[in-house]
Every structure is written in C-alpha cells, then in structure tokens.
Design goal:
five-stranded mixed β-sheet; alpha/beta
Length: about 325
C-alpha cells in the first residue's frame, strides 16, 4: 500500500512538471524564444505600398551595413492592423512605416486627433504603455489625404485653399479615391459637413488613375495622397486644408522595446533617420519605383549613399 502511494505521488509530480512546461511554452513570454528577437536577425514589416517597402529597405540596409546583425523584411502585409499583430505577437521587431493617424484609429481604437503634435504624442505614449513599444519621431513626411490641382487651374481660378472649391462645386469634375468616399470619420459625408461643399460631378475611381486623370484634363480637381511621386512629376499643387478636416498621417518607425534592450546600439542608429526624409524626397523615391520601375531596395540604397549614411564610401 505504501509503495502504491509512492508511485502515485511520483506520477503526480511528473504530470505537474509536464503541465507547467507546456503552459510556459504556449504563453510565449517576452524575450524567451528565438521568434521574439533574441536572435541576431532583426525583422522589419512592410506594407504592400511602394513607400513602405522603400522605407523598410532603408532600415534593413542601414542595420546590415552598420551592425553585425542580419535584417529581414516581413513583406507585403496588407494593412496597419496586420503590421500591429506581427509586432504584438513578436513575429516582427520593427514596423517601418507607422502613420500616427492610422495607428490611432486602426490599432489603438481611439478617435482621430487633428492636431498633428498631439496625435503624434498620443501614439507615442499609448504604444509604450500598452505594448512596450517605442514610436520614433517622424522621418519628416506625412502621407495625408490632399486635394490638388494643376498649376494652370490654380492660377486661373485662384485655388489655394480647399474652401476655394466651393464656388466651383457645381462646375468642376472631381476625381477621388473610391476608398475615401465612405471612410469612417473622414469620408465624403463628413467632408460635406465640415466644408459645406457638395460636388455635383464627383467621380470615385482607383487611386492609381486620379493623377493621370488630372494631368490629362479629364478632371479639374482630385483627392490623392500627399506623398505620391506623380505630384512633383506632374507639377500638381496641393490645396491647403484650411479647416483642418483631414487628420495627420505622420510617418515614423515603431519598434518593440525588447529589441532595443537586447541591442541598445540600434536606437541611436535608427534615430539617424528621424527628420531626414522630407516629402519631396519620398515622392521622388516613390516615383523612381512606380514610374521608372526600380526596385525599392535599389532606391533605398541610393538614398543611403546620397545622404552619407554608410560609414565607409560605397
């Protein structure tokens, strides 16, 4: 009887150890597994957009050139929430392009903040508190919704502010990105309320077509994105959002803090990109990829060499 009790006690001990072991593995405690950044491989997310892929390549090449670490791009993620999940689950370490306006509404599930500084500060504070992440200050550009016209139209009709469009609301053909029309909080109905403008000839279309429609004269005004490479190339001018309707989408880098704790030299290296990519620079790089069909990696390398980011001459 005593021997049987000993065997039962031993069996209970073994089962308890197994349960604890399995439970610990399943929980994925921060910093314990190779997939959580403990290796020498820094993983960087990129969206499907040209801009995101260029920035991801800039970060990857900078890390590989200036440190002994390998950098891998987790490519073609479809949305800001997908990038968030990759960082949250520690399947990636750095989000190359994090837009504060998008982070606020899509991931932090907060209301849009139209004051640029307050939006940026809020994202920085909340991601640190909720997810132990660092949101670096912006690279120096924002990818906002923007109404734009060609130079001739601007001069001829004195178009400088969005409010100036009101007197042409029944005359102009206006091309807009289809996804903008029903965008929550910033879509067409909200725009009508804010500006008191209802276009009688509104044409929702693929965002890739609006710029050529304006250039060819098929549209008088379009709503596009402020970092598109065709803005400078087609000599388009942006109208000022004089009622501050559109929230800011400043672009910065988001980093899981375990990576910075494990590799403290990364933060000063990556901070070198803060404030050094202006809107004309990113437009030019986007254009090189979209129109001249250069690889994002090639354009990223040219940027790093041009601005002397590498310690050794290339």
């Amino acid at each position: 009887m005593r021997e049987m009790k000993k065997q039962v006690k031993k069996l209970f001990l073994i089962v308890s150890i197994l349960i604890v072991t399995v439970a610990t593995s399943a929980c994925g405690l921060p910093g314990l597994s190779d997939s959580q950044g403990s290796s020498q491989n820094i993983r960087i997310t990129a969206l499907t957009t040209t801009e995101s892929q260029i920035v991801a390549n800039i970060i990857a090449q900078l890390i590989e050139h200036e440190t002994p670490y390998k950098a891998t791009i987790v490519n073609n993620l479809g949305s800001a929430p997908m990038q968030h999940q990759a960082l949250y689950r520690h399947d990636a370490d750095i989000q190359a392009a994090a837009y504060d306006g998008g982070e606020l509404t899509a991931n932090l599930l907060m209301a849009p903040i139209k004051d640029s500084k307050r939006a940026n500060d809020t994202v920085r504070r909340e991601v640190k508190k909720r997810w132990d992440q660092t949101y670096l200050h912006t690279y120096g550009f924002a990818n906002n919704y923007a109404f734009m016209v060609n130079q001739k139209e601007q001069k001829q009709d004195h178009l400088y502010n969005i409010s100036d469009l009101k007197k042409y609301q029944n005359k102009f053909s206006v091309g807009v990105a289809s996804e903008w029309v029903n965008a929550p909080g910033v879509g067409y109905s909200n725009f009508q309320t804010a500006y008191g403008i209802t276009f009688s000839k509104l044409h929702p279309m693929n965002i890739g077509l609006v710029y050529s429609a304006l250039k060819s004269g098929k549209m008088n005004v379009i709503l596009g994105y402020s970092t598109d490479g065709r803005i400078d190339s087609y000599h388009l001018n942006l109208l000022k959002d004089n009622k501050h309707f559109f929230p800011p989408y400043n672009c910065g880098m988001l980093i899981n803090n375990y990576v910075l704790r494990e590799h403290p030299e990364l933060k000063p290296l990556l901070t070198r990109l803060v404030g050094h990519i202006n809107v004309h620079e990113i437009r030019a790089m986007n254009y090189q990829v979209d129109d001249h069909l250069l690889e994002p990696a090639t354009v990223a390398h040219q940027f790093l060499v041009k601005h002397h980011y590498f310690k050794e001459a290339q």
